[in-house]
Amino acid sequence: MAGNAANAQAMPSYPPYNIEKTAETDYALTMALAGFGPEDVEVLQEDNTLVIRGRVPESNREREWLHRGIATRAFERRFVLADHTEIDQAELRNGLLTIVVRQVVPEAARPRRIPIVTGPAGSVMAPAAMGAESCRRQVEAPHAA
Predict the structure, then answer these.
(1) Gap between the Cα atoms of 124 and 85, Å rounded
(2) Under DSSP, is residue 69 helix (H, G, I), strand (E, B) or coil?
(3) If you count DSSP H runs as helices and E runs as strands, how many of each does the chain have, helices first?
(4) Coil, helix or strand for 103?
(5) Domain map of the chain by residue range?
(6) 3-class DSSP state of 53
(7) How far apart are CA 10 and CA 3, in angstroms?
(8) Which is nearest to 43 in space by CA: 1, 92, 8?
(9) d(Cα 50, Cα 109) in Å, to the nearest integer?
(10) 96-125 pLDDT per residue, tens
(11) Residue 80, C-beta contacts closer than 8 angstroms, at least 6 positions apart
(12) Is 0.70 surpassed by the pTM of this model?
């Protein structure tokens, strides 16, 4: 826990963001980007990393500010994504960038329920490690008394 707190202090805090679980496999990352337009923000998925970059809007460079309380500085935030993760969409509305992240686990990697069957009394099931031929011999061979 203490290590996480130290890492949190070392990481940049701009721009602020939230991560919300919206469904079993869906998440929403919402980042506060007041003053940024879609042309000022870039969202990339590089392998298992989500990269969000923002550059200072052109309109902010040309203004003469008397007080500037809303930060619009350049930034880059990186988020490590879990395996089998896709970025579904990104939307910038009312100063909030929302990125929908979906975890898509391939069928081969999903847990699979194995049905339990019952057989006739006295039947023997060979372990899966034994080959089919070995299993056949075990079942067909008369039992020594």
Answers:
(1) 43
(2) coil
(3) 3, 7
(4) strand
(5) 2-107
(6) strand
(7) 11
(8) 92
(9) 22
(10) 999 999 998 777 777 888 999 987 766 666
(11) 48, 49
(12) no
